[in-house]
């Protein structure tokens, strides 16, 4: 049993939760989840293939889009085993060492950083178009992407070690089908003040700071666009930002909502946080390729051509 495994091992064990009360239809629930994963992986892979094979897309805007696609692929792959394991095989038990906690949090932080880079790209393109090519060169874009990766991994690196120092003596039943730092730390019998403060600090200096800088970028973009004499040119400039704005809303809305629920929610029902958790992990990788393909005529044309070959 779970309790015997917990007692016979020094490693803390946890139980995943699917959707409480719906255990009889887990197989049916897994069908849309599986479809979402397939669409996410295929969609992001296609975008990467198109950008890699077409030299005309080797420019900063599409380099940042490829970074977003790689991050979404990683997020899908990191969450797929445990979520489908729960719904397909009722595989609920996992040790702390087997959690993909570090990867999930790191990839979400990297995605936030990439969205900030894409906002900076739109800011330079609209507010300083004559210097765009000199400011955002390909080597510089690559270095910025590398910094995003290092930032995300460095910020989240201490989390597994902070959790391993705890003693866990509770039921250790998680409210999701994957591990999150803010939830695992609540299972500890020890003082979690350091983890709570560090987790809040990291959230503020990554997702919080990124969202603030993105907002500032769009304030400057809107100010520049409104100062353009021609109404048509203003709309044309703002239209280039629609895909990115959709990606921002898709990523930040559930992310912020889930963070608020975990830290301040007092409701006895875990259903809102469970559903919002699935949305935050499954919807961005699913929707980003669709949003960018629909809004980018270049990608649509190339996708149509390559599908006929």
From TrEMBL:
Its main location: membrane. Pfam families: 7tm_4 (PF13853). The chain crosses the membrane at residues 25-51, 63-88, 94-120, 141-163, 197-222, 234-253, 273-294. Residues 43-292 form the G-protein coupled receptors family 1 profile domain. InterPro entries: GPCR_Rhodpsn, GPCR_Rhodpsn_7TM, Olfact_rcpt, OR51/52/56-like. Keywords: Cell membrane, G-protein coupled receptor, Membrane, Olfaction, Receptor, Sensory transduction, Transducer, Transmembrane, Transmembrane helix. GO terms for biological process: cellular response to lipid. CDD domains: 7tmA_OR51-like (cd15222). It is found in: Cell membrane; Membrane. PROSITE patterns: G_PROTEIN_RECEP_F1_1, G_PROTEIN_RECEP_F1_2. PANTHER family: OLFACTORY RECEPTOR 56B1-RELATED, OLFACTORY RECEPTOR FAMILY 51 SUBFAMILY AF MEMBER 1. Belongs to the G-protein coupled receptor 1 family. This is Olfactory receptor.
């Amino acid at each position: 049993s779970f309790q015997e495994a917990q007692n016979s091992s020094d490693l803390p064990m946890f139980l995943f939760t699917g959707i409480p009360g719906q255990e009889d239809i887990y197989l049916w629930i897994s069908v849309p989840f599986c479809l979402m994963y397939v669409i996410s992986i295929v969609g992001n892979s296609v975008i990467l293939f198109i950008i890699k094979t077409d030299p005309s897309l080797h420019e900063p805007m599409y380099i940042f889009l490829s970074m977003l696609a790689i991050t979404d692929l990683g997020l899908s792959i990191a969450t797929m085993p445990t979520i489908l394991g729960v719904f397909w095989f009722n595989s609920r038990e996992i040790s702390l060492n087997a959690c993909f906690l570090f990867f999930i949090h790191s990839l979400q932080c990297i995605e936030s950083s990439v969205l900030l880079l894409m906002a900076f790209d739109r800011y330079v393109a609209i507010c300083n178009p004559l210097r765009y090519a000199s400011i955002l060169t390909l080597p510089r874009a690559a270095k910025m992407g590398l910094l995003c990766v290092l930032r995300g991994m460095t910020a989240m690196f201490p989390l597994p070690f902070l959790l391993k120092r705890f003693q866990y003596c509770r039921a250790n039943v998680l409210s999701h089908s994957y591990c999150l730092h803010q939830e695992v730390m609540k299972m500890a019998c020890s003082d979690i003040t350091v983890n709570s403060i560090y987790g809040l600090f990291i959230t503020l200096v990554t997702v919080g700071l990124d969202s603030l800088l993105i907002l500032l970028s769009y304030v400057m973009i809107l100010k520049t666009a409104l100062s353009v004499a021609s109404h048509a040119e203003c709309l044309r400039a703002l239209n280039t930002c629609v895909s990115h704005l959709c990606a921002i809303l898709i990523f930040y809305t559930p992310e912020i909502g889930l963070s608020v629920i975990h830290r301040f929610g007092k409701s006895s029902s875990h259903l809102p946080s469970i559903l919002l958790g699935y949305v935050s992990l499954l919807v961005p990788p699913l929707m980003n390729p669709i949003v960018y393909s629909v809004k980018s005529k270049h990608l649509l044309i190339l996708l149509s051509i390559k599908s006929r070959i």
